[in-house]
From TrEMBL:
<protein>
    <recommendedName>
        <fullName>enoyl-CoA hydratase</fullName>
        <ecNumber>4.2.1.17</ecNumber>
    </recommendedName>
</protein>
<dbReference type="InterPro" id="IPR029045">
    <property type="entry name" value="ClpP/crotonase-like_dom_sf"/>
</dbReference>
<dbReference type="InterPro" id="IPR001753">
    <property type="entry name" value="Enoyl-CoA_hydra/iso"/>
</dbReference>
<dbReference type="Pfam" id="PF00378">
    <property type="entry name" value="ECH_1"/>
</dbReference>
<keyword id="KW-0443">Lipid metabolism</keyword>
<dbReference type="GO" id="GO:0006635">
    <property type="term" value="P:fatty acid beta-oxidation"/>
</dbReference>
<comment type="similarity">
    <text>Belongs to the enoyl-CoA hydratase/isomerase family.</text>
</comment>
<dbReference type="InterPro" id="IPR014748">
    <property type="entry name" value="Enoyl-CoA_hydra_C"/>
</dbReference>
<keyword id="KW-0456">Lyase</keyword>
<comment type="function">
    <text>Could possibly oxidize fatty acids using specific components.</text>
</comment>
<dbReference type="InterPro" id="IPR018376">
    <property type="entry name" value="Enoyl-CoA_hyd/isom_CS"/>
</dbReference>
<dbReference type="GO" id="GO:0018812">
    <property type="term" value="F:3-hydroxyacyl-CoA dehydratase activity"/>
</dbReference>
<keyword id="KW-0276">Fatty acid metabolism</keyword>
Length: 287
Protein backbone atom coordinates (compact mmCIF):
# COMPACT_ATOMS: atom_id res chain seq x y z
CA UNK A 1 0.00 0.00 0.00
CA UNK A 2 1.35 3.44 -0.89
CA UNK A 3 1.85 6.15 1.69
CA UNK A 4 -1.05 8.19 0.23
CA UNK A 5 -3.36 5.21 0.44
CA UNK A 6 -2.22 4.55 3.98
CA UNK A 7 -3.01 8.14 4.90
CA UNK A 8 -6.46 7.78 3.32
CA UNK A 9 -7.11 4.60 5.30
CA UNK A 10 -6.03 6.16 8.58
CA UNK A 11 -8.14 9.25 7.93
CA UNK A 12 -11.26 7.20 7.18
CA UNK A 13 -10.75 5.05 10.28
CA UNK A 14 -9.94 7.88 12.68
CA UNK A 15 -12.71 10.27 11.67
CA UNK A 16 -15.68 8.33 13.07
CA UNK A 17 -14.00 7.41 16.38
CA UNK A 18 -15.28 10.43 18.30
CA UNK A 19 -18.75 9.85 16.87
CA UNK A 20 -18.66 6.21 18.00
CA UNK A 21 -17.76 7.13 21.57
CA UNK A 22 -20.41 9.86 21.66
CA UNK A 23 -23.05 7.51 20.30
CA UNK A 24 -22.12 4.75 22.73
CA UNK A 25 -22.65 7.08 25.67
CA UNK A 26 -25.85 8.63 24.32
CA UNK A 27 -28.98 8.51 26.46
CA UNK A 28 -30.85 5.29 25.56
CA UNK A 29 -34.55 4.83 24.86
CA UNK A 30 -35.48 1.72 26.84
CA UNK A 31 -38.42 -0.65 27.18
CA UNK A 32 -38.79 -3.19 29.98
CA UNK A 33 -40.48 -6.47 29.12
CA UNK A 34 -41.02 -9.30 31.60
CA UNK A 35 -37.60 -10.94 31.24
CA UNK A 36 -35.42 -8.49 29.28
CA UNK A 37 -34.72 -4.78 28.95
CA UNK A 38 -34.65 -3.41 25.41
CA UNK A 39 -32.81 -0.22 24.49
CA UNK A 40 -32.27 1.61 21.21
CA UNK A 41 -29.00 3.49 21.34
CA UNK A 42 -28.89 5.30 18.05
CA UNK A 43 -28.10 2.74 15.37
CA UNK A 44 -27.54 -0.10 17.86
CA UNK A 45 -30.09 -2.28 19.60
CA UNK A 46 -29.28 -3.43 23.15
CA UNK A 47 -30.92 -6.43 24.82
CA UNK A 48 -30.20 -6.97 28.52
CA UNK A 49 -31.27 -10.28 30.06
CA UNK A 50 -33.11 -9.38 33.25
CA UNK A 51 -33.80 -12.35 35.53
CA UNK A 52 -31.44 -11.50 38.42
CA UNK A 53 -32.90 -13.98 40.93
CA UNK A 54 -32.07 -16.92 38.63
CA UNK A 55 -28.80 -15.47 37.24
CA UNK A 56 -30.61 -14.85 33.93
CA UNK A 57 -31.54 -18.50 33.42
CA UNK A 58 -33.20 -18.93 30.04
CA UNK A 59 -36.89 -19.77 30.16
CA UNK A 60 -39.48 -19.90 27.38
CA UNK A 61 -40.77 -16.38 28.03
CA UNK A 62 -37.25 -14.94 27.83
CA UNK A 63 -36.64 -16.80 24.57
CA UNK A 64 -39.84 -15.39 23.07
CA UNK A 65 -38.97 -11.85 24.16
CA UNK A 66 -35.41 -12.03 22.85
CA UNK A 67 -36.51 -13.41 19.49
CA UNK A 68 -39.37 -10.95 19.16
CA UNK A 69 -36.93 -8.10 19.84
CA UNK A 70 -34.26 -9.44 17.47
CA UNK A 71 -36.82 -9.73 14.67
CA UNK A 72 -37.94 -6.17 15.36
CA UNK A 73 -34.36 -4.86 15.26
CA UNK A 74 -33.65 -6.91 12.12
CA UNK A 75 -36.58 -5.26 10.34
CA UNK A 76 -35.67 -1.75 11.53
CA UNK A 77 -33.57 0.15 8.98
CA UNK A 78 -32.34 2.46 11.76
CA UNK A 79 -30.62 -0.42 13.57
CA UNK A 80 -27.36 -1.76 12.15
CA UNK A 81 -26.20 -4.17 14.86
CA UNK A 82 -27.36 -5.64 18.17
CA UNK A 83 -25.68 -6.31 21.53
CA UNK A 84 -26.99 -8.94 23.96
CA UNK A 85 -25.71 -8.76 27.53
CA UNK A 86 -26.58 -9.84 31.06
CA UNK A 87 -25.46 -8.67 34.49
CA UNK A 88 -21.92 -8.32 35.86
CA UNK A 89 -22.42 -11.57 37.78
CA UNK A 90 -23.90 -13.63 34.95
CA UNK A 91 -24.56 -13.36 31.25
CA UNK A 92 -26.83 -16.38 31.76
CA UNK A 93 -26.12 -19.27 34.12
CA UNK A 94 -28.03 -21.85 32.09
CA UNK A 95 -31.52 -22.85 31.06
CA UNK A 96 -34.30 -22.70 33.65
CA UNK A 97 -34.09 -26.15 35.28
CA UNK A 98 -37.26 -25.61 37.31
CA UNK A 99 -39.22 -25.00 34.11
CA UNK A 100 -38.12 -28.28 32.52
CA UNK A 101 -37.38 -30.68 35.39
CA UNK A 102 -40.74 -32.46 35.30
CA UNK A 103 -41.13 -32.54 31.51
CA UNK A 104 -41.63 -35.90 29.82
CA UNK A 105 -40.39 -37.10 26.44
CA UNK A 106 -43.91 -36.89 25.05
CA UNK A 107 -44.28 -33.30 26.28
CA UNK A 108 -40.96 -32.24 24.79
CA UNK A 109 -41.72 -33.89 21.46
CA UNK A 110 -45.09 -32.14 21.36
CA UNK A 111 -43.78 -28.77 22.53
CA UNK A 112 -40.12 -28.12 21.76
CA UNK A 113 -39.20 -25.61 24.46
CA UNK A 114 -35.96 -24.66 22.69
CA UNK A 115 -37.38 -24.23 19.16
CA UNK A 116 -37.70 -20.48 19.62
CA UNK A 117 -33.90 -20.11 19.69
CA UNK A 118 -33.52 -21.78 16.25
CA UNK A 119 -34.79 -18.57 14.66
CA UNK A 120 -31.57 -16.75 15.56
CA UNK A 121 -30.02 -18.37 12.49
CA UNK A 122 -32.19 -16.16 10.31
CA UNK A 123 -31.23 -12.81 11.87
CA UNK A 124 -29.28 -10.96 9.19
CA UNK A 125 -27.82 -8.17 11.27
CA UNK A 126 -24.72 -8.82 13.41
CA UNK A 127 -25.38 -9.79 17.02
CA UNK A 128 -22.62 -9.37 19.62
CA UNK A 129 -22.64 -11.19 22.96
CA UNK A 130 -21.23 -9.05 25.80
CA UNK A 131 -20.42 -11.64 28.48
CA UNK A 132 -19.54 -11.05 32.12
CA UNK A 133 -19.49 -13.68 34.84
CA UNK A 134 -21.17 -17.01 34.14
CA UNK A 135 -22.11 -18.17 30.64
CA UNK A 136 -23.07 -21.74 31.35
CA UNK A 137 -25.32 -24.30 29.68
CA UNK A 138 -28.02 -22.47 27.74
CA UNK A 139 -26.30 -19.17 28.47
CA UNK A 140 -23.14 -20.39 26.76
CA UNK A 141 -25.25 -21.71 23.90
CA UNK A 142 -26.91 -18.30 23.50
CA UNK A 143 -23.49 -16.63 23.39
CA UNK A 144 -22.40 -19.14 20.73
CA UNK A 145 -25.48 -18.27 18.66
CA UNK A 146 -24.30 -14.66 18.52
CA UNK A 147 -21.82 -13.66 15.82
CA UNK A 148 -18.96 -13.06 18.24
CA UNK A 149 -18.30 -12.75 21.95
CA UNK A 150 -16.66 -9.94 23.89
CA UNK A 151 -16.01 -11.06 27.47
CA UNK A 152 -14.69 -9.74 30.74
CA UNK A 153 -11.64 -11.04 32.58
CA UNK A 154 -13.85 -12.92 35.06
CA UNK A 155 -16.09 -14.60 32.47
CA UNK A 156 -16.57 -18.36 32.74
CA UNK A 157 -17.89 -20.73 30.09
CA UNK A 158 -19.14 -24.28 30.21
CA UNK A 159 -21.75 -26.84 29.20
CA UNK A 160 -22.45 -28.68 32.48
CA UNK A 161 -25.64 -30.40 31.30
CA UNK A 162 -24.03 -33.85 31.59
CA UNK A 163 -23.94 -33.34 35.38
CA UNK A 164 -27.74 -33.10 35.32
CA UNK A 165 -28.08 -36.36 33.41
CA UNK A 166 -28.74 -34.66 30.07
CA UNK A 167 -26.76 -33.00 27.27
CA UNK A 168 -26.78 -29.62 25.49
CA UNK A 169 -30.06 -29.02 23.66
CA UNK A 170 -29.84 -25.54 22.09
CA UNK A 171 -27.11 -26.38 19.60
CA UNK A 172 -24.14 -26.34 21.96
CA UNK A 173 -22.67 -29.65 20.82
CA UNK A 174 -22.84 -28.51 17.21
CA UNK A 175 -21.72 -24.89 17.40
CA UNK A 176 -18.97 -25.51 19.94
CA UNK A 177 -17.51 -28.39 17.91
CA UNK A 178 -17.51 -26.30 14.73
CA UNK A 179 -15.88 -23.46 16.65
CA UNK A 180 -13.10 -25.28 18.54
CA UNK A 181 -12.90 -28.81 17.11
CA UNK A 182 -13.81 -32.25 18.39
CA UNK A 183 -11.20 -32.77 21.12
CA UNK A 184 -11.90 -29.74 23.31
CA UNK A 185 -15.64 -29.85 22.61
CA UNK A 186 -15.73 -33.47 23.79
CA UNK A 187 -13.72 -32.54 26.87
CA UNK A 188 -16.07 -29.71 27.86
CA UNK A 189 -19.31 -31.54 27.06
CA UNK A 190 -18.42 -34.93 28.53
CA UNK A 191 -16.85 -33.62 31.74
CA UNK A 192 -19.07 -30.57 32.15
CA UNK A 193 -16.07 -28.56 33.31
CA UNK A 194 -16.00 -24.77 33.29
CA UNK A 195 -13.21 -22.79 31.66
CA UNK A 196 -12.01 -19.25 32.27
CA UNK A 197 -11.79 -16.50 29.72
CA UNK A 198 -8.10 -17.05 28.93
CA UNK A 199 -8.70 -20.64 27.82
CA UNK A 200 -11.85 -19.56 25.98
CA UNK A 201 -9.88 -16.85 24.16
CA UNK A 202 -7.04 -19.20 23.20
CA UNK A 203 -9.57 -21.75 21.92
CA UNK A 204 -11.23 -19.17 19.68
CA UNK A 205 -14.51 -18.99 21.59
CA UNK A 206 -14.01 -15.36 22.64
CA UNK A 207 -13.04 -12.57 20.25
CA UNK A 208 -11.95 -9.95 22.81
CA UNK A 209 -11.24 -9.81 26.54
CA UNK A 210 -11.78 -6.53 28.40
CA UNK A 211 -11.92 -5.30 32.01
CA UNK A 212 -15.37 -5.64 33.58
CA UNK A 213 -16.00 -1.92 33.61
CA UNK A 214 -15.27 -1.63 29.90
CA UNK A 215 -17.51 -4.44 28.65
CA UNK A 216 -20.64 -2.63 27.54
CA UNK A 217 -18.75 0.37 26.17
CA UNK A 218 -16.48 -1.90 24.10
CA UNK A 219 -19.38 -3.97 22.79
CA UNK A 220 -21.40 -0.89 21.90
CA UNK A 221 -18.45 0.72 20.13
CA UNK A 222 -17.93 -2.44 18.07
CA UNK A 223 -21.64 -2.47 17.23
CA UNK A 224 -21.61 1.22 16.27
CA UNK A 225 -18.61 0.64 14.04
CA UNK A 226 -20.44 -2.18 12.25
CA UNK A 227 -23.68 -0.17 12.06
CA UNK A 228 -21.81 2.66 10.34
CA UNK A 229 -20.70 0.47 7.44
CA UNK A 230 -22.45 -0.55 4.22
CA UNK A 231 -25.36 -2.57 5.64
CA UNK A 232 -25.88 -4.87 2.63
CA UNK A 233 -22.16 -5.74 2.60
CA UNK A 234 -22.23 -6.40 6.35
CA UNK A 235 -25.17 -8.80 5.91
CA UNK A 236 -23.38 -10.51 3.01
CA UNK A 237 -20.16 -10.87 5.02
CA UNK A 238 -22.07 -12.45 7.92
CA UNK A 239 -23.78 -14.81 5.47
CA UNK A 240 -20.45 -15.77 3.87
CA UNK A 241 -18.82 -16.65 7.20
CA UNK A 242 -21.83 -18.66 8.38
CA UNK A 243 -22.04 -20.44 5.02
CA UNK A 244 -18.47 -21.65 5.52
CA UNK A 245 -19.68 -23.70 8.48
CA UNK A 246 -22.31 -25.45 6.37
CA UNK A 247 -20.40 -26.41 3.24
CA UNK A 248 -17.09 -27.40 1.67
CA UNK A 249 -14.32 -25.04 0.55
CA UNK A 250 -15.11 -24.98 -3.18
CA UNK A 251 -18.80 -24.23 -2.67
CA UNK A 252 -17.95 -21.70 0.02
CA UNK A 253 -15.49 -19.80 -2.16
CA UNK A 254 -18.00 -19.71 -5.02
CA UNK A 255 -20.72 -18.43 -2.69
CA UNK A 256 -18.37 -15.75 -1.35
CA UNK A 257 -17.49 -14.71 -4.91
CA UNK A 258 -21.16 -14.27 -5.83
CA UNK A 259 -21.75 -12.19 -2.71
CA UNK A 260 -18.67 -10.09 -3.50
CA UNK A 261 -20.02 -9.42 -6.97
CA UNK A 262 -23.46 -8.61 -5.57
CA UNK A 263 -21.91 -5.96 -3.32
CA UNK A 264 -21.13 -3.97 -6.46
CA UNK A 265 -24.87 -3.45 -6.92
CA UNK A 266 -25.02 -1.43 -3.69
CA UNK A 267 -24.67 2.30 -3.26
CA UNK A 268 -22.30 1.60 -0.37
CA UNK A 269 -19.71 0.01 -2.65
CA UNK A 270 -19.70 3.09 -4.89
CA UNK A 271 -19.45 5.41 -1.88
CA UNK A 272 -16.77 3.37 -0.11
CA UNK A 273 -14.44 3.17 -3.09
CA UNK A 274 -15.09 6.77 -4.15
CA UNK A 275 -14.25 7.95 -0.63
CA UNK A 276 -11.05 5.89 -0.61
CA UNK A 277 -9.92 7.43 -3.89
CA UNK A 278 -10.87 10.93 -2.72
CA UNK A 279 -9.05 10.39 0.60
CA UNK A 280 -12.11 11.14 2.74
CA UNK A 281 -14.25 9.23 5.21
CA UNK A 282 -17.13 7.34 3.56
CA UNK A 283 -20.74 8.13 4.39
CA UNK A 284 -22.81 4.98 3.97
CA UNK A 285 -26.56 5.41 3.48
CA UNK A 286 -27.25 1.67 3.71
CA UNK A 287 -29.07 1.09 0.47
Amino acid sequence: MTSSNTKSKLTSEAAPKTELVAAATAEPASTALEEIIVERRGSVGLITLNRPKSLNALNLQLAKEVMQTLKSFDADDRIGAVVITGSPRAFAAGADIEEMAEKTLVELLGNDIFAEWDQMRFVKKPVIAAVSGFALGGGFELALMCDFIIATEDAQFGLPEIKLGILPGIGGSQRLTKSIGKALAMDLILTGRTIGVDEAKSAGIVARVVPTGDLLQTALEAAYQIAGLNAPAVAMAKEAVNYSLETGLSAGVLHERRLFQAAFATEGQKEGMAAFIAKRAPVFRNC
